[in-house]
Automatic annotation (TrEMBL):
Pfam families: MARVEL (PF01284). The gene is Sypl1. The keyword Kinase does not apply. It comes from Platysteira castanea. InterPro entries: Marvel (IPR008253), Synaptophysin/porin (IPR001285). This is SYPL1 protein. The chain crosses the membrane at residues 109-131, 143-164, 202-225. It is found in: Membrane.
Amino acid sequence: WCWVLLAALVSSMMVGLRVDFSMLLEPLGFVKVLEWILAIFAFATCGSFQGEITLLVSCKGVVNKTITAAFAYPFRLNTVVFSAPDPKGCGGTWTDVYLTGNFSSSAQFFVTLAALVFLYCLTALVVYIGYNHMYQQNNKFPLTDLVISVLTAFLWLVSTFVWAKALADIKVSTGASIILGTESCKAPGTTCHFLSVTSMGILNVSVVFGLFNMILWAGNVWLVYKDSNLHSQWNRISESP
């Protein structure tokens, strides 16, 4: 039954198919390709990040031992731990040190939006290339495209600024200031030094891609409105007495 339904769906879609790649050279199609590519970059630059923090610890029975804590997307830092620098836990003075903050909601919001935009752009490109004649003749398609474009531009605005704020907090939570809040480093005879943290330049780039997406989708709103029948209909309404 599944194969029969799938065949029926494919055959119904092929009935009105008129492939025309020239639409990709038009502003509406070209911008959609750019939105598709930028969504991939936004997804990849944020969702693929992996980092590490390194401390240098000296305590009872241990001299200049490096300890590390790895963190990655979706940035649940409160689950990231620095284990003891030696099996005896610095003579019993060391307790596992956890980072602070859970930024998963902001990061996942940003990445999920990028993934959904990627899928929508693919769908829209199929419509533009194969069913542009139906798109132009039926006002429901441009109107749906316009509403989705407005909503997407707004969501890019919100998700980018939310993610930028979360990224600033992540940098604080993984910076040198963590030494001040680490109780194990305050034990008698124990000293801790912050050595390094993985560069977050790629996460900065993800914010930039978010801003580019926001600007591009805002421009897409005008293109969808201008290149559809909605624009001509509005002109006729405004010119009528």
